Amino acid sequence: MERPSRLFDSLVLGGQPLPNRIVLPPLTRSRATNDGIPTQLMEEYYRQRAGAGLVISEGVVIAPQATAYARVPGLYSAEQVAAWRPVVAAAKRHGAAVYAQLWHVGRQSHSTVQPDGLPPKAPSAIPITGYQYRAPSGRIPYEVPRELTTAEITDIVQAYGTAARNAVRAGFDGVELHAANGYLIDQFLNDASNQRTDHYGGSYENRMRFLLEVITEVARSLPAERIGVRLSPSSDWMDARDTDKRTLYSTAVRTLNELGLAYLHLVEPEIAGSTTVARPEDSIPTAELAALFDGVVIVTGGHDQTSAERLLADGTADLVGFGRLFIANPDLPQRFRTGAALEPLRPAGIYGGGHEGYTDYPSLAISGL
Hints:
Elements: E1 11-13, E2 16-18, E3 22-24, H1 40-48, E4 54-61, H2 78-91, E5 97-103, E6 121-122, E7 132-135, E8 138-141, E9 146-147, H3 150-170, E10 174-178, H4 184-189, H5 204-218, E11 227-231, H6 245-257, E12 263-267, E13 271-272, E14 275-276, H7 286-290, E15 296-300, H8 305-313, E16 319-321, H9 324-328, H10 332-338
Parallel strand pairs: 3-4, 3-16, 4-5, 5-10, 6-9, 10-11, 11-12, 12-15, 15-16
Antiparallel strand pairs: 1-2, 7-8, 13-14
Helix pairs in contact: 1-2, 2-3, 3-5
C-alpha cells in the first residue's frame, strides 16, 4: 500500500507543474567527453532518474576557462548543445522540469587545465590554502590566481548569457546559477576571497554586483521565474570565508527575493562541497534564511525521506534534493512512495569512469518506471 507523503504533492515552478517535490540536485559525475560533450551514457543516467519532480543537471561550465576537472560537460559550443538535447529529453520523460546548473569555478581551477596554460582568474589574487587541487597525478597546491579586470568580468557575465541561450536551445526549462561551494560567484560574495577596491568589492552591494549582473544577463534569454540560485551560506569549503556570513547571506537572500526568481536553493550547513562535516560554529540555520525568501525554496544536504517530510511540513522547504540517495537509487521516488529498501552508495565510480557506479544501480521492477 502506498504511504501518504507531502513529497508527492504537486507544485508549480516557473509556471510549470511538477509531479512531486523531489529534486535530483546537481551532481558532478565526470562522464562527458574530454571536450565537454554529453554522452549516451549520461542520457541513460538521466533517463533512470527522471522520476524526480525537478531535475537539475550536474554543473555545466560556461566556457573552457571555467572548468577545473576533466570530462565535465559544457554549454558553450554547438556540439555540446546538440548532445545535450537527447539527455534533456530523457530527463523529461516522466514530466520533470529540467534545469541546467551554470558553473564557473574561478580560482578552484589550475594552470594545467586552463586554455592559456596560466593560473586561473578570480576576484582577487588570493590563493586557496586550506585545500589542494585534485590533479590526475594527485593532490597539488592551488596557485595564486590572476585578478580579473573589469573587462574580463564583463566577458564572463556575457558567457553566462551565452550558456543560458544554449540551455534554451538544448531544451532545458530553466537554469540554476551555481553561487555555492566557493566557486566564482561565491568568491565574489565572500570577503576572504574578494578584496577588490573597485565597485565589485568592499560593501555587500558591491560584492553582490557580479551575481546580479549575471542574473540580468541570463534574464535576456529566460524569464526570471525560470532562473534559480544556489547558495551554501554556512560552508567555508575551498576557503569561502567571510567575517559576517549571517549578514552577508541575509542581505543576499533579501536582494534575491525581490527578483521574482524560480527558486532559492540552500545547501545545509553540514555539507561542505560533497562532504558531510560538523556544523560550523557560525552556521546559519537554513530555516532562518528560507524565511526571508517568499518564493520556492529548495533544501539539499544529507536528507532522507523522514527529514524531508519534516522540512516540507514545517514550511522550511518547498522542494527537497537528494544527492547520494539518488545516485544509488535511480528510482528513488518510487522507493519513497512504496517504502522499498534503499541501495547503499558505492564510493567507486562516483567521479569518472564508465557504467560501473553510474548506471548499474538496480531499479525496482515496477510497471511505469
